[in-house]
Amino acid sequence: MADKNILIVEDEEDVMELIRYNLDKEGFHCDVAYNGREALKKASATLPDLVLLDLMLPEINGLDVCKTLKKETKTATVPVVMLTAKGTETDIVAGLEIGADDYITKPFSPRVLLARINAVLRRHDAPAEKDKGMIRIHDLEIDSGRHRVKLKNDPINLTSTEFALLKFLAARPGWVFTRYQIVDAVHGSDYPVTDRSVDVQIVGLRKKLGTAGKYIETVRGVGYRFMEEN
Predict the structure, then answer these.
(1) For the chain, which residues make up each domain, given as ranges?
(2) What is the arithmetic mean of pLDDT over 159-176?
(3) Could you tell me the CATH superfamily of domain 5-128?
(4) Which of 73, 98, 100, 207 is most buried, by the most CB atoms less than 10 A from its CB?
(5) Is the peptide bond before 192 cis (omega within 30 degrees of 0)?
(6) pTM score, two decimals?
(7) Could you tell me which CATH number the domain at 131-226 has?
(8) What is the pLDDT of residues 137-162, one digit of tens each?
(9) Strands 154-156 and 148-151
């Protein structure tokens, strides 16, 4: 994963330098932003391979920065890893709900931080490199190579997590998966997510899919499945 460009958004100088030192040592190219407004400007201008984002920032907080990045077409697919001292389940769910790809709490181990960044980059690169298939089911078209979803030929803007979740379920219509199986498939077995956050992501995905949201069925007491075609 060397040669990737990482935008570090952190207002504490000592934490910023610790992160930059460890990423530089691994061959990453780092840019920095010390507040939310600067982060949005740099992300739009340079389109980094990943944004490492603190939540408690001056001017614009991290949650609003993430919302804006995921809303704008130009930056919507840029992976975002949140790094923050706010580590309650509510905080994690809030971050994932608005499109964060991972969530790391302070204090953190530099080795763990590097491993998680590499894992997010691998997941993000995988569709373009390995999975160029097309899934057509009901009135949905899921294009893995272009990371694009269409409903009746109208594009739907999904976060990388929502896209991975939809593709995982739609590729196996009729199969029932528990929430933890979904977490493992979409994020990896070491991902610190609760079953509650999966429910939140499903709700958000159904909302974006509109009438096609009905294809994601809840199996009470078990998990979720994608409706089979008749």
Answers:
(1) 5-128, 131-226
(2) 87
(3) Response regulator (3.40.50.2300)
(4) 100
(5) no
(6) 0.61
(7) 1.10.10.10
(8) 999 999 987 788 999 989 999 888 88
(9) antiparallel
